[in-house]
Amino acid sequence: MKKVIAILISCSLALAASVIAQQDEQQQKQKKEKAPPAKSQPVKSQPANEAKPAPKPQAVPRQHTETNAPEREINAAKPQTGEPTYKPHAATKVPGREPGHANANREQTEQPNKEGSATNESENANKPPGPAPANEREQYNRAGGAPQPNRPNPPANKLNAQKKPDPQTVQRIKTQHASFRAQPKPDKVPPVQFNQSYRISGSQQWQGAQYQVFRSYHPEWHDQNWYHSHFNRVELIGGGYYYLNNGYWFPAWGYDPSAQYYAYDAPIYVGSRAEPPDRVIANVQATLQEMGYYQGEVDGLLGPLTREALTAYQGDHGLYATAVIDEPTLSSLGMT
Question: In this structure, is residue 304 part of a structural domain?
């Protein structure tokens, strides 16, 4: 009985040992299956008559120029991946434009246009200057003259704006208008109407004895007897009656209601020679026309264009902008 038991025990041990051995073998096989087998790279034999590719030359940075190589050549040496590697090319460094250099902030003068050409800065420098700005007169007045709003017809050459008119030109103009007579033009220059409460705008700020007549002026309505009893000279000039008083011509409102054409209601200074006002106005218009201030017709009427030209001239020459012919303006024009 003991022998049988011993045989069974030995058989059980042998069977257990064989089972353990089989498990070890299975584990080793699983490890071998997980590890990838090393593949040997086949060596391609190069034909004897085939020339080896020449090595690519290394790029040498250029100076004073901009790299214009296509993007494909720039990216050819980059490793190919799933994502695109194209990037904008950058210009090579140019001497004088490195950070910290005096010209580092200077803008590049060549920019490609629609056809692919470049615009040179020197070409732009040689282009003629464009038209003067619309507010050239305001800029000039801020630099030296008295600023005045709404100044039409600036002088063609602003460097001559402060110069006086040529005395020979003034004398020639006076000779041409020695027998000038103005005619009423209500269609072009509408007349003003009588207004007893009318005062010349801005006259209270005009300082000096030469402007006292404008500060105190107000229209008056009288008949012919009153005017003849107060003034020695009353004349029909340019469609309306005027009376002369101390070197000034004034509108004679009420002298003849059928002849009351006045382009402007204000005194007109003519000086001690007491020339007719239409002749003096024509001389002033022609002189301002020669200087580039007045572009209208020489008609001897103190209309809106003439008053605007006077305002511009007076402002450029440091005078009060009275928009009328006063003593300082006539003296500045060389007509006193």
Answer: yes
Nearest alpha carbon to residue 183 among 137, 220, 238, 226: 238
For 42-73, the pLDDT digits (tens) are: 545 454 445 455 555 555 455 544 444 445 54
In a domain, 146, yes or no: no
Cα–Cα distance measured from residue 242 to residue 247, given in angstroms and rounded to the nearest whole number: 12
- Average pLDDT of the chain? 74
- Which of 107, 100, 75, 103 is CA-nearest to residue 89? 75
Residue partners of 182: CB distance under 8 A and separation at least 6: 237, 238, 239, 278, 281, 282, 299, 300, 301
CA 140 to chain centre: 15
Q: Which domain holds residue 208?
A: 164-178+190-332
Query: Is 20 inside any structural domain?
Result: no
> How big is the CA angle at 259 (ends 281 and 308), to the nearest 5 degrees?
30
Which residue type, as a one-letter code, is found at position 219?
A: P
* Residue 246 falls inside a structural domain: yes
Rounded Cα distance, 237 and 181, in Å:
8
Nearest to 193 by CA among 130, 262, 141: 262
CA distance 105 to 183: 67
The pTM (predicted TM-score) of the whole model is: 0.54
For residue 228, give the H/E element and its range: helix 224-230
Summarised one tens digit per residue, pLDDT across range 189-238 is 999 999 999 999 999 999 999 999 999 999 999 999 999 999 999 999 99
Residue type for position 190: P
Question: How many structural domains does the chain have?
Answer: 1
Task: Give the 3-state secondary structure of 54-65.
Answer: CCCCCCCCCCCC
